[in-house]
Amino acid sequence: MLEVPSTTTPRVVFRYENTTAGRVWLSLAGDTFARVVATSCGQVMLEAIETSGGRRVIIRPRTPAELAQDTCNAYARPVSTLDATRGGETLLSCTDSRPVVGRSVLDRVFDMPGRTYTGTGTGSDSELAFESAIWHSGAVCGALGAGAADDEILMHEMVHAVRQLRGLMHCAPMYGDYDTQEEFFALVVANIYIACKTPAPGDTSLLRSNHHGFGPITGSAAGWLDSHRRNRVYLGQMRREMSDFWGNLSRIPVGQCWFNPVRQVEFPPAAGSGATGAAGGRTTASVTAGPVQFDGEPQG
Q1: Does the reported pTM lie above 0.90?
Q2: Which run of H or E residues covers position 157?
Q3: Nearest residue to 99 (alpha-carbon basis) of 116, 84, 76
Q4: How far apart are CA 262 and CA 298, in angstroms?
Q5: H and E: helices and strands count for the chain
Q6: For 171-219, how does the pLDDT look when each residue is reduced to its tens digit (9 = 90+)?
Q7: Which of 111, 121, 294, 298 could form a disulfide with 2 if both were Cys (CB 3.0 to 4.6 A apart)?
């Protein structure tokens, strides 16, 4: 496998086979990444990756076995699960939120139940398995619904990845069909990204409602925040854990992003103003993004 760092940030690396198919994958994945970081929300994500302790997001193709198991999927998995897990928290399965239990040879001999694992919170590189081609409009997975475009899927997985880089992963169960807290955070940020890239103010049919399929949210964009009593609670958790990321998201101006519950929490409207909460003329990180390019010779 070869590794090529993106010149947009050396903390994002593309890993691929040096074959015709591999080079096609690299071109498509690089283009998708470029479109993500060309938006204000993508710039916030880029800065978050660059300020995550020098760890890397490694984007790679999905293997044939992975595609055969579940075609329409993508995922970010830490290189070290314990280091990616929040410090002091029990390691939970991100499939069903149950504690991960290991049994040694002696445990099996004496029929002992084994032990759980505790996260270190030191952070880990994240390996992001992704196929641009299957999520393009008209492709096998691209017509599934809200949040199913290739760049939207990539942003969703990059949220998982940056939390793994920072040792914040904790797959505790979440209300409704969000499945876990990690999926809640990824869905909310991906929806903010969709609103930042789409010049269609208030079109909530574009925003993904939960982790079970790609149905749209109901109600207005501004009304989502208080559509469930726990939304503010979990957004408060993200605010505490990722204050820099939160702050940059909150400062994206209303004119650049018509759905942004982070901004609504951080800049609530004045009583009787009738406004929806805004950061005024404040702007976020001003890194300039263009078409993706690669430096040097492939490595690895």
Answers
A1: no
A2: helix 150-165
A3: 116
A4: 39
A5: 10, 7
A6: 988 888 888 999 999 999 999 999 999 877 788 999 999 898 899 998 8
A7: 298
